[in-house]
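Task 17 of the worksheet. Students: predict the tertiary structure of the chain below and write it out as structure tokens. Keep your answer in the requested format; marks are given for formatting as well as content.
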Amino acid sequence: SSYNKPFSEASWHSSSEVLDSVLYIPHFILRYISNCGYCPHTFFSGSAHQYQPSEHHLTSVTESTIANPRNEYGLYKYQLRLACCYYRLNYGLPISFGILFNHDSIYRPSNYLLPRLISAVCSSFALTDVDPFLSFISGFKCNFAFYLSDARDICFDIYTILSKGLYGDFVLSSGHLVSFYELCCICIDEVYGYLCGSRLLFCQLRSLLEDHFIGEPSSINIAGLIGDNSKISSVYYRSPRSPRELIASMIPSITPKPSRI
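Model answer:
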């Protein structure tokens, strides 16, 4: 999609850089630990880009789903997964591989979807002007839904894998299905409360959002990939953080809270 261009989308144009960081360096680490006398439990991260999403429906992905890389980045991640499996089975190395699905945090680059949305809403409240938010949503002609995870949940999954000595492949995804319209509503609510913003502007932004997606909130295009994390969930149960909790945690890193006299 044009609204979100992560590093992996440009992998066809920077294949040597991707090959070094995603495959060659991890492979060097694998060869090194296979030759040294002591091998600590090692975790390597993969990506949902190992699979092709459907444009018409949600596709559930498990550890046994056959890979079909959607780009060069996904191809190299899949090759790294095969290398991890090879060294685990043939050298007996304690290696775990995580297939990480979409997740956000305060460390996301500013060109990603959620930071851009939060920044646009913050700018509107800071300037008391609807234009920054209007300019942002004008690029979205329909309401769509996707699974969103908090990176803190994914990190805790990785910690659990390492601390409990779990080896093998694991799908790491604890997302909530949320529509873009719902995401905008949550963001407006949270920024309004955080900045103690104008009530009038709050109503204007919500009205603007309703007008832009008139008839759309009830007609959502649900497509893409879902990570089935039942394997790691069978080890322990954790209630995933909600999109509202995620957005609330990201706002302070994007805009400073105004001082009050």
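Marker's comment: Residues 15-35 form the longest helix (21 residues). The CA atoms of residues 195 and 259 lie 10 Å apart.
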